[in-house]
């Protein structure tokens, strides 16, 4: 429980209460289930269990594009996610889940307490900027993994994000968002803001330029692999300050435990919780919409080919 609340029990109990719309009984069950999940999966020690060898960790970082670019003017950490170009195809699902939980735990145990101290007030949430550059119909292949990650967050890290900003959104996202938005709870809908283009002008109102993710700094730049090469401040890179600090922190924690027992190679297995039926419906809706869009694209391509052959 102490690792969960980090010295702010009231504020953290309020998160669970908010996640269950003020129902005390439901919030209590959610909290107990969360604590049991943490105990059963040894989450308290996950920051002492590195993804090894380092080459494996590097490919995880290259295919799961997540990083921290800075802080908002209010002191909230700015988390950047390259949704469209994350392939999740270089390691096992367990490695990606382990990496995700480690970043959650590092945020909650190190980043947020540090921000609270630095800004002189309690800071328990972050801002997430989701870059949709490169989002394709092949995103269907990632739905299972993303559903697992989403369910883990919903059940065990509730109300940790103040606002989700969507940037560089292609048509495929707009089409899916149109059918998914009505299925979301009003509380969640209020958190999501779809911005035009890279959203740079909007972000300058709430954070300094240095804290804006690299894919928002130039209109149309996105987080493409070409634009990332050699770009200073690429917060997805293993060599960015955030990932270096996280990597070194896990190594230090592991060294303390390794002095007692050697660390085994292999992924850290976490029990995947059963998703909420509403989340299952959302995932199926996205899958269905992507299938429709993919079929339309194939039909359009076929018609174009027929026209060319006919000419």
Plain-language structure description:
The protein is an alpha/beta fold and 311 residues long. Helices cover 52% and strands 9% of the residues. It is built from twelve helices and five strands. The chain has helices at residues 2-5, 9-19, 24-40, 54-63, 93-119, 143-156, 171-180, 186-191, 200-206, 225-228, 241-258, 277-310, and strands at residues 66-71, 77-82, 126-131, 161-167, 192-194. The protein has a five-stranded mixed β-sheet. Helix 6 links the parallel strand 3 (126-131) and strand 4 (161-167). Helix 7 packs antiparallel against helix 12 (277-310). The radius of gyration is 20 Å and the shape is globular. 27% of the residues are buried. Residues 224-232 and 298-309 have low confidence and may be disordered. This is Sec14p-like phosphatidylinositol transfer family protein. Pfam families: CRAL_TRIO, CRAL_TRIO_N. Residues 56-213 form the CRAL-TRIO domain.
Query: What fraction, in percent, of the residue positions are helical?
Result: 40-55%
Structural class given helices, strands, pairing?
A: alpha/beta
Strand order of the largest sheet: 1-2-3-4-5
Radius of gyration: 20 Å
Q: Main β-sheet: number of strands, strand sense, barrel status?
A: 5 strands, mixed
Distance between the termini: 71 Å
Average pLDDT, rounded to a whole number, is 84
**How much of the residues is beta strand, in percent?**
5-15%
Shape: globular
Q: What is the H-and-E element order?
A: HHHHEEHEHEHHEHHHH
Number of helices: 12
- The tally of strands reads 5
InterPro entries: CRAL-TRIO_dom, CRAL-TRIO_dom_sf, CRAL/TRIO_N_dom, CRAL/TRIO_N_dom_sf
Organism: Forsythia ovata
Protein name: Sec14p-like phosphatidylinositol transfer family protein
């Amino acid at each position: 429980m102490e690792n969960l609340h980090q010295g702010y029990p009231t504020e953290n109990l309020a998160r669970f209460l908010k996640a269950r719309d003020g129902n005390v009984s439901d919030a209590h069950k959610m909290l107990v289930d969360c604590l049991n999940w943490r105990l059963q999966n040894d989450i308290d020690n996950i920051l002492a269990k590195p993804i090894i060898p380092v080459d494996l960790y590097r490919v995880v970082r290259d295919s799961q594009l997540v990083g921290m670019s800075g802080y908002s003017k209010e002191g909230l950490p700015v988390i950047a996610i390259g949704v469209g170009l994350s392939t999740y195809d270089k390691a096992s699902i367990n490695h990606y889940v382990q990496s995700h939980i480690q970043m959650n735990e590092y945020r909650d145990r190190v980043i947020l307490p540090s921000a609270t101290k630095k800004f002189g007030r309690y800071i328990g949430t972050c801002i997430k900027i989701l870059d949709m550059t490169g989002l394709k119909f092949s995103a269907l292949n990632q739905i299972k993994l993303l559903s697992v990650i989403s369910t883990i967050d919903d059940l065990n890290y509730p109300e940790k994000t103040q606002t989700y900003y969507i940037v560089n959104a292609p048509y495929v996202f707009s089409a899916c968002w149109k059918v998914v938005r009505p299925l979301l709870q009003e509380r969640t809908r209020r958190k999501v803001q779809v911005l035009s283009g890279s959203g740079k002008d909007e972000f300058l109102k709430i954070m300094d330029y240095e804290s804006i993710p690299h894919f928002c700094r130039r209109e149309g730049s996105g987080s493409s692999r070409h634009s990332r090469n050699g770009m200073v401040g690429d917060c997805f890179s293993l060599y960015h300050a955030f990932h270096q600090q996280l990597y070194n922190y896990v190594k230090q924690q592991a060294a303390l435990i390794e002095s007692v027992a050697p660390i085994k190679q292999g992924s850290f297995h976490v029990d995947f919780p059963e998703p909420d039926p509403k989340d299952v419906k959302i995932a199926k809706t996205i899958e269905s919409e992507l299938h429709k869009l993919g079929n339309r694209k194939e039909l359009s391509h076929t018609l174009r080919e027929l026209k060319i052959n006919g000419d």
